[in-house]
Amino acid sequence: MTSEKPKRRQRYTGKNPRHFAEKYKEHAPERYASDVAKVIAKGKTPAGMHRPVMVREVLGVLALRPGELAIDCTLGYGGHAAELLAALQPGGRLIGLDVDPIELPKTEARLRALGFGPDTFTAIRTNYAGLARTLTEPADVIFADLGLSSMQLDNPARGFTYKDDGPLDLRMNPRRGQTASALLATLDESGLAALLLENADEPNAERLAHAILQTPVTTTTQLATAIRRAGGDDDAVRRAFQALRIAVNDEFGALEAFLQSLPLCLKAGGRVAILTFHSGEDRRVKKSFQSGKRDGTYSEISDDVVRATSEELRANPRSRSGKLRWARRSATTPWSNS
Ligand SMILES: C[S@@+](CC[C@H](N)C(=O)[O-])C[C@H]1O[C@@H](n2cnc3c(N)ncnc32)[C@H](O)[C@@H]1O
């Protein structure tokens, strides 16, 4: 006999829950479907959920066929993955990767509940920087939707949001590496200013770095307050969180390793599509695809970025900064001819 007590839901003051943990209905969309639908209809993302961006455009450029092998390098909530899996049937397979050990098991369970068994779908907790080591065969299609999921962003315990107080953590895998507050403790003013400039194009990097390092900063609120005291607005706060997040997770290092490994991981004629959310990411993807086109690695690449439609922007404001680029690997490559 077990003596486990049923979990009590979080108490909250006022008519509606305001904080992430209090929104118990949003955390259980299978039980409260109509309440969750109302949140989505208001253009908001329910707590504990992520709404996939530019799904139609992604499916359009990837042109999946039944029986193919596809890789979703950033599984997140599994919104894109569910659509890719459906388009690959009958007979296709999807391998989904994510570094996040907290969200990945939930997403795997969600996709299994949709009927995708182990012969069709495999989930692997790993960094896409090592894609070439993860795969045992090249894929027809590779997809990546860079950055953070809404589940990560909205959960104050993970330290990604300045809208709620929480530990200044910012690790996508909280079991590995250094937190953002530990990183801050190792930086001097010039090091922090360089990080703010390089990772988030912060125009007042030196002034903000000076202000941030006046006192130890260990929480999200302390960081936001230090920036505001130095005259920074919400955008400056957002940029500082972005810059620290990129550093803590070595996001540019991972992206560059991933871009370099793509030709090895794609079959001849295979397609790749990457969704980026800020200029540092988009610049790297654009350069890599352009240089691959010049040296014959890719036979075709997107001329321009694809953006969300105005209809999607209204329905999901988080799609605002999304930029989609794609490339097709050549049928013959310089190294396969030699
Ligand atoms: C924008 S979300 C993806 C959302 C997903 N497309 C969906 O429809 O739900 C990005 C995801 O990529 C993961 N991620 C970020 N960097 C990663 C990396 N280097 N390797 C593997 N996963 C990564 C994050 O943990 C996050 O879950």
Using brief descriptors, characterize the structure shown:
single chain, 338 residues, alpha/beta, Rossmann fold, 2 domains, 7-stranded mixed sheet, 15 helices, 7 strands, globular, binds S-adenosylmethionine
> How are strands sequenced across the largest beta sheet?
3-2-1-4-5-7-6
Number of strands: 7
Assess the beta-strand content as a share of residues: 5-15%
State the helicity in percent bands: 40-55%
- The CATH fourth-level homologous superfamily of the largest domain: Vaccinia Virus protein VP39
Radius of gyration: 21 Å
**CATH topology call of the largest domain:** Rossmann fold
User: How many strands, which pairing sense, and closed or not: the largest β-sheet?
Assistant: 7 strands, mixed
Bound molecules: S-adenosylmethionine
Query: How would you sum up the global shape?
Result: globular
What is the CATH C level class of the largest domain, in words?
Answer: Alpha Beta
Helices, by number, come to 15
- CATH architecture of the largest domain, please? 3-Layer(aba) Sandwich
Termini gap: 68 Å
Overall pLDDT confidence = 91
What is the domain total for the residues? Answer: 2
Q: Stretches where pLDDT falls below 50 for ≥5 residues?
A: none
Helix-and-strand structural type = alpha/beta
In sequence order, what are the helices and strands, one letter per element?
HHEHEHEHEHHHHHHHEHEHEH
Written overview of the protein:
With 338 residues, the protein is of the alpha/beta class. The protein has 2 domains: 55-150 and 253-337, Vaccinia Virus protein VP39 (Rossmann fold); 174-248, no CATH class. The protein is 41% helix and 13% strand. The protein has helices at 33-41, 55-62, 79-88, 104-113, 131-134, 150-154, 180-186, 189-200, 205-212, 220-229, 234-248, 251-265, 279-294, 310-315, 334-337, and strands spanning 69-72, 93-98, 121-125, 139-145, 266-276, 298-301, 323-329. It has a 7-stranded mixed β-sheet with strand order 3-2-1-4-5-7-6, sandwiched between helices. Strand 1, helix 3 and strand 2 (93-98) form a beta-alpha-beta unit. 43% of the residues are buried. S-adenosylmethionine binds next to helix 3 and strand 2.
